[in-house]
From TrEMBL:
Belongs to the TsuA/YedE (TC 9.B.102) family. Keywords: Cell inner membrane, Cell membrane, Membrane, Transmembrane, Transmembrane helix, Transport. It is a multi-pass membrane protein. This is YeeE/YedE family protein. It comes from the Bacteria. It is found in: Cell inner membrane. GO terms for cellular component: plasma membrane. The lineage of its organism: Bacteria, Bacillati, Bacillota, Bacilli, Bacillales. It comes from Alkalicoccus halolimnae. The chain crosses the membrane at residues 30-49, 55-74, 95-115, 161-183, 203-224, 245-265, 320-339, 351-374, 386-406. InterPro entries: Sulf_transp_TsuA/YedE.
Amino acid sequence: MAETYVHSAGAQEDVEKRDSTVLDQPQMKLITGGLILTALFAVFLFATQEPMQPVLLLIGLLLGYTLFHARFGFTSAFRRFMAVGNGKAIRSHMVMLAAAVTLFAPILAFGISFFDVEVSGYVAPLGVSVVLGAFLFGIGMQLGGGCASGTLFAVGGGRTVMFVTLLFFIVGSVIGAAHLPFWTEEMPSTQPISLAESTGLGYGGAWLVSIILFALIAWITLVIERKRNAPALAPVPSTNGFKRILRGSWPLFAAAIGLAGLNALTLMTRGEPWGITSAFALWGSKAASFAGMDVASWGYWQGESAAALEASIFSDATTILNFGVIIGAFLASAAGGLFKFTSINGKNVAAAVIGGLFMGYGARLAFGCNIGAYFGGIASFSLHGYLWAVMALLGTFFALFLRPLFGLSVPKSKDTFC
C-alpha cells in the first residue's frame, strides 16, 4: 500500500514537484544492484588505496542517505528565507552548525584523528575573492536547482537536469582554478582569521561566541518570519518505527545533528572537514590535461596540489566522499520508491548551464561551497564562512529576479510549502 509523502523544508525544488504525493514500494532491484556495486567499489578501494578511503566511502554514503531522506537543502532554505521570510530551514542550519562546532572544537584543539593524520579546519582569508565567489555561487545555486551537496544528491535521486548542472559545475571549477591566482594574489584580502586562533579566545571562547551567534541568527529569522507573516511549511507525513529510518522522511533537525556528526567523523578520518568542489576542479583539470591543456603550469596546481593532479582520482578523499554521497542518495531514493529520471526542457537546461558555471567558478574563488566554506568554514571557526553566507544570501536575492526568465518558480507569500 502506498504511503503519503510530503517533502520537508529543505527539499530541492524540482525533487519536491516530482515526488511530493506518494511514497511507492521500495525498488528492490535498484537497491540490490546499488549495494552490490557499493560493496565491489569498497573492496577495490580497500585493495588499491589507503585504508581511510573505504571508510570515507561509507561516510559519504551516510551523508547522501541523510541529505536525501531529510531533503536537507541549502538552496531552498536561502530562497524561501529571502523570498517570503520562512526561516525554518535556516534555523535547522543553526542547529547543524551548533552541533558541528561542539564536535569540532575538541577535535581541532587536541588533534584527534583515526588514521594518525594531522587535523586542520577550513580557515581562509576574507577578501574580494570570497565576496564575489559567494555572490556568484548564490546566484548559481538558485539557477542550477541545487547547491554542491544538492547537486550530488539530486543526481543520485535521478533528477536528469542536475547531470547538466554537475557537468558545468565541473567546467566552472576548472575555469575558477585557472583564474584563482589573480583573485587571491592581485585582489585585496586579509590573512585567514580564526575565531579560536586569531582572536585569543581559544576553542572554548570561540565555541561560546559561535553558539551565541547561531542563537542570534535563529532569533532574527523568527522575528522576520513573524513580521512578514511567512507561510508555514506543511507537516511531513512519514512512516513509523524502523521503516522511517530506512525509507524516510527524516526531520530536518535530526538530519542537522546527523550531518554535523558525519562531518566530525570526516574531520577525524581524513584530517579535514567535509568538502565537495575541490574534486570537481580535479576531475575537470584531469580531463583538460588529457585533452592537451597544460593545467600543471597553473598556480592552482603548484606545491602540494601537484601530486593530486598526477595521482589516481580514487586516491582523492573528496572524490570518494562525492561518490559516496551520490550512491547514498541513490539508495535512499530507491528505498522510498522514488528513483526516476525526470524530463528536461530548453529553459531548465539553460539555467543548469549558467548555474553550474557560476557555482563552479564561485566555489573556487570563495574557498569552497555551501559545504566547504559555509558548513565546514563556520564549523572550523573561520570568519570567511560567515562572509560566504552573507554574500550567498545576497546572490540568492538577486537570483529571485532571474529565475522567472528560465521558467523557475519563486515562493510567494500565499504559498504553503511542502
